[in-house]
Amino acid sequence: MALVADHNGYPGPKHVLEMKDKLQITPQQQSAVEKLFVQMKQQAIAKGKEVLGAEALLEQMFASGNTEAELRAQTERVGVLRAELRWVHLSAHLEARKLLTPEQLAAYQRLRHHGGLATAPSSGGL
């Protein structure tokens, strides 16, 4: 969901917490990132449930033979909800970046993407 942010120097809260010792984050930074992570996770779960509900309704609408206009409107609703879910993740990356120093951001990039802790993409910084 937020790979584009992560690859461009906007760290995910989960990864910041996983690398807190290597990044040498302060207790205040850790507290702020933990709060951000919890908030992001709660919002993502809630929005994810909305996406699933909208998808189920779209399925039901097809099964019921709704009009093309109705199906299109519901499809667009699903798209909006998916975009909102992605924004939950992306905005958390934007906020996490603000909490780190330039040195910590450079260390994050080095560790996460240049051999230090490079891993396969996860769930968007969750």
Please tally the β strands and state the result: 0
Q: What's the story with the biggest beta sheet?
A: none
Helix content: over 70%
Q: Tell me the strand percentage band.
A: under 5%
Terminal-residue CA separation: 9 Å
CATH domain class name:
Mainly Alpha
Outline of the structure:
The chain has a single domain (3-14, 30-113), classed as Methane Monooxygenase Hydroxylase, Chain G, domain 1. It is built from 6 helices and no strands.
What does it look like?
The chain has helices spanning 3-7, 13-18, 20-23, 27-64, 68-99, 102-113. It is elongated and about 60 Å long. It is an all-alpha fold and 126 residues long.
Descriptive tags:
disordered C terminus, mainly alpha, 6 helices, Methane Monooxygenase Hydroxylase, Chain G, domain 1
What's the structural blueprint in terms of helices and strands?
Blueprint: H1 3-7, H2 13-18, H3 20-23, H4 27-64, H5 68-99, H6 102-113
Helix pairs in contact: 4-5
